[in-house]
């Protein structure tokens, strides 16, 4: 999985491309996300439009990150998750633990 970074003012946008599957891939994604959150003082949006599939390891990475964000008084923000990813999050109850946006500008402005 490739993960590009783009800044929008003080907000860091992560753009992963590829399936979030397998323990190694999921662990690397979670580490990258939490490192980005530290660098951006928690102001991170994950553009999930490039993630076609999430397996149990990928779901665990998202869930763990969402819990850590919540523990620190923040919210994990996802931009445009694919229908498959949205359905997995919904079926497992994790969709309520993240903020979902369909527009990058709205997601970025949610930090104001």
Please describe the structure with a list of short key phrases separated by commas or semicolons.
112 residues; alpha/beta; Transcription Regulator spoIIAA; five-stranded mixed β-sheet; 5 strands; 23% strand; globular
Write the layout of secondary structure elements.
Blueprint: E1 2-8, E2 11-17, H1 23-39, E3 44-47, H2 56-71, E4 76-79, H3 83-91, E5 98-101, H4 104-109
Parallel strand pairs: 2-3, 3-4, 4-5
Antiparallel strand pairs: 1-2
Helix pairs in contact: 1-2
Fold and architecture overview:
There is one protein chain. With 112 residues, this protein is of the alpha/beta class. It has one domain: Transcription Regulator spoIIAA, CATH 3.30.750.24. It has four helices and five strands, in the order ββαβαβαβα. A five-stranded mixed β-sheet has the order 1-2-3-4-5. β1 and β2 (11-17) form a beta hairpin. α1 runs parallel beside α2. The radius of gyration is 12 Å and the shape is globular. 32% of the residues are buried. The mean pLDDT is 95.
């Amino acid at each position: 999985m490739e993960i590009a970074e783009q800044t929008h003012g003080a907000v860091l946008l992560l753009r992963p491309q590829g399936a979030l599957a397998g323990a190694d891939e999921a662990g690397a994604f979670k580490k990258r996300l939490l490192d980005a959150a530290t660098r951006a003082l928690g102001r991170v949006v994950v553009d999930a439009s490039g993630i076609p599939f999430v397996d149990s390891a990928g779901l665990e990475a998202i869930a763990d990150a969402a819990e850590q964000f919540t523990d620190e008084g923040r919210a994990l923000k996802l931009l445009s998750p694919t229908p498959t990813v949205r359905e997995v999050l919904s079926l497992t109850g994790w969709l309520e633990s993240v903020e979902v946006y369909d527009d990058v500008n709205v997601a970025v402005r949610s930090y104001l």
